[in-house]
Model the fold of this input.
Amino acid sequence: MTRRRGQQALQEAERAKDARWRYAVRNPTFRSELRELSELFQVDSKEARKKYRAFLLKWRFQDISETVVRGFTRPDLTTDEERLLYLDSSRWGILSRPVVAMSDPSEDMPWVGFIVDTSHPRDVLLADFGASLDRFMPKRRVRRRSDKTEFYLAVYDRALDGQTFAKIAAALRRSISTVKSAYLTARRHIFGRAGGLSKTRAPLAGFEQDHIETCLICRKAQKVEDMCPAARTYVSEA
Done:
């Protein structure tokens, strides 16, 4: 069998969801429970939401629009045929993805947990997983250089001891600008950076990448405290 990729696999998942819904709405038990749920929403939203979660779990749908549920008992739907046509045309309000992310990542907590519906074919699962990752992966990510860790930490530890950038550069046989950039990079890795930057901190994202090369004050700085206000803010808030 030819392996489906990308959009083709996602379209197959959507068709599978639609098929499951159309089969389910022809089940008398499903319709009876949906009617009870719809009626409950009219009088007790809190209790309805509790039963709604149990209903989703039983029938293996991730989400059914409340609009769809409430609409099932509309007064203008007077026959079983009309109610079935209504449900058949309500597939837009049904969610049943093969792969679902259980959390959103942040700069300091980049892990994301997923639940996977293993009833789907492997190629569909891989395609949906890839699409989910695309939604979470930033377009521009700070480059991680684990091979530079020893150097970054050596710079940071010496700066913390009060050594000047010139002295550190001489000891480590690197340029002063490289040492300054390394110090800022080490700060970011040590203290992290919140995923949602405020407006005042937003310009600091990726700060160490090119600041040292363009800031006249920081280029002349001998110690951290001699750096420009923006760099000192970065150091204190990173």
Notes: The two ends are 52 Å apart (CA to CA). Residues 101 and 130 are 12 Å apart (CA to CA). Confidence is low (pLDDT under 50) at residues 194-206. The chain has two domains: 6-96, 146-237.
